[in-house]
Amino acid sequence: MLLDGDAWSDCFDSMRSEAWRLETLPVYTMAQEAEKPARFLAGEKSPDGYASAWMDEVRAWTAEGKYVGRVHILARPLSDYLRFEFEYYYRHHVTAGEDIRILDLTD
């Protein structure tokens, strides 16, 4: 099932106990983040004090006893976008309580 916009948000807003996201693509780009991967590839690192609305929501859900996680299926070598996503987002999202798991299909 592919969801975005309000349909995607509604799934999380109606979550009772847990929400899992399955990611299978090497690139997920949203218009509001289009410039960030390019800056990362140019050498800019994510700020140490990084925070986002997503992290605030994850913290709130986990404080309510809810579980938020994702599994990303991939094969190496990592795409430029995945290198960006791991460094810029994932390392911070786990500190907010999101359970992020990687399934590497590389032989």
TrEMBL record:
Protein name in the entry: DUF6879 domain-containing protein
Organism of derivation: Streptomyces acidiscabies
Sequence ranges assigned to domain DUF6879 in this UniProt record: 6-106
Domain of life: Bacteria
